[in-house]
Amino acid sequence: MPVTTSDAATARWALEAEGLGKKYRRGWALWDCTFRVPVGRVAALVGPNGAGKSTLLGLATQLVEPTTGELRILGVPVGRPGSMARWAYIAQDKPMFTYFTVADTLRMGRELNPSWDQATALRIVEGGRLAPGARIRELSAGQRTRVAFALAFAARPELLLLDEPMADLDPVARDEMGALLLAEAAEHGTTVLMSSHLLADMEQMCDFVLVLDGGLVRMAGDTEELVPMHTLVTGMLTERGELPAALGTHIVVEARTLGRQFSAMVRRQGPLELQWQLSEPSLEEVLLAYLRSPRAPALLSPTAVPGHQEESAA
Length: 314
Ligand SMILES: Nc1ncnc2c1ncn2[C@@H]1O[C@H](COP(=O)(O)OP(=O)(O)OP(=O)(O)O)[C@@H](O)[C@H]1O
Prior knowledge:
- The chain is of the alpha/beta class.
- The protein has two domains: 5-214, Rossmann fold (3-Layer(aba) Sandwich); 226-292.
- The protein has nine helices and 15 strands.
- A seven-stranded mixed β-sheet has the order 6-7-8-3-9-10-15, with helices on both faces. A four-stranded antiparallel β-sheet has the order 2-1-4-5, covered by helices on one side. Strands 12-13-11-14 form a four-stranded antiparallel β-sheet, with helices on one face.
- Helix 4 (118-127) packs antiparallel against helix 5.
- Adenosine-5'-triphosphate binds next to helix 2.
- Keywords: ATP-binding, Nucleotide-binding, Transport.
- InterPro entries: AAA+_ATPase, ABC_transporter-like_ATP-bd, ABC_transporter-like_CS, ABC_Transporter_VariousFunc, P-loop_NTPase.
- Residues 15-239 form the ABC transporter domain.
- This is ABC transporter ATP-binding protein.
- GO terms for molecular function: ATP binding; ATP hydrolysis activity.
């Protein structure tokens, strides 16, 4: 089916996956993944080692061929003409010509990108007081990240895909680059999807999460929808040292016992017992509970489910 311009122009979903799967020789890296990420979100792509995060980014950037299903970027199936120009990708090692200077690197970006925005490139580079004549190989990890962000944002992508952008940065550089990323994404209305193991950073930066584990989608949706569905419950074990039966009326994501007490992360299915102590968890606590409990049922908020009434996701 041909892609019409209206598919792209009216897209409300930066990414939509339906039955997306990738099988390597040794098995499935992604299996039957169905989710969507709305336009305008800063989304965290989270999961343990081997979860399938890089495979998903590879499918989006056409470095990897899908085995099953389809992935659409801004309404256009990946691989069709029209999808390529709309995203930018920063790989984890931020590949650049190390013998180029900062100025050479920006000049090459301008020559390769018809929609190059020189003012944005200069603003980002000058914000870090980088000397135009400095060679890429002489830059610190944080400074290289700044140049990579300058290249990416100056190309004016609608979707920016990042593979562990902060992994090699110290805490101060992480903070600075995180703020720069958010400011530039807000300035240009860029949707961001970034993989990371840094859950606390993701909690500060992101308003949407996509959690993969074992090649499956474990959680997807707006953080403000997902987090309030959960409660951290603390209470007493039964006299036989078991979890109280009333806990079973809820979806128990994770439960731990300590002495005669239990604490549990639950998805409420009704009122909770009055004698329990309740608190609202942080996003990081929710994510950790799901990552530690691979058997907990998956959770996709309505926003993240393709085909769900779109009014709820505006
Ligand atoms: N090119 C490849 N050939 C064969 N198997 C691969 C290839 N790339 C990834 N895999 C396998 O696919 C699975 C998912 O790997 P992937 O790199 O996508 O995970 P990840 O979530 O990015 O992990 P990490 O956090 O360690 O980077 C793993 O079992 C991995 O061994």
